[in-house]
Amino acid sequence: MASKRDADQQHAVLAQLSEQLRNAAEILEWARDNAHWRRLPTPTWEWLRTATDAARDLADGLDEVAPAFASPRAPAATPALPAPAAQRAPTPRR
After folding, report:
1. Of 27, 39, 40, 62, which has the most beta carbons under 10 Å away?
2. Would you call 72 helix, strand, or coil by DSSP?
3. What does the pLDDT look like over 10-59, one tens digit per residue?
4. Where is this region: Disordered (predicted)?
């Protein structure tokens, strides 16, 4: 059974990996734009586009599943509703 600390570390590692994949996607996007600008062969540009999309998809997927690895948190106690205000007797009219 994993401890709370282990679960939190797993969650942190997945979040860090997601961020690294987003950084890799930015680098790949730069390379893709550079390949297009330098008029490199179309398969080079297409491969870089596919790699960029894949890196972003992986990062998005990690963002979705990472919370499942976090240690469960105790549900916050729901605050009690305030008691209804006491009915005041109508003020007598003069």
Report:
1. 62
2. coil
3. 888 999 999 999 999 999 999 999 998 999 999 999 999 999 999 999 99
4. 69-94
Print burial letters for 45-70: b (CB count within 10 Å at least 16), e (below 16). beebeebbeebbebbeebeeebeebb
Three-state SS at 3: coil
Distance CA 21, CA 43 (A): 22
Q: Look-up: residue for tokens 């994949």?
A: 21
Q: What is the sign of the dihedral through the CA atoms of 75, 65, 8 and 15?
A: negative
pTM over cut 0.70: no
Q: What is the distance between the alpha carbons of residues 41 and 45, in angstroms, rounded to a whole number?
A: 7
Q: Residue 38 carries which DSSP code?
A: T
**Total residue length of the chain:** 94
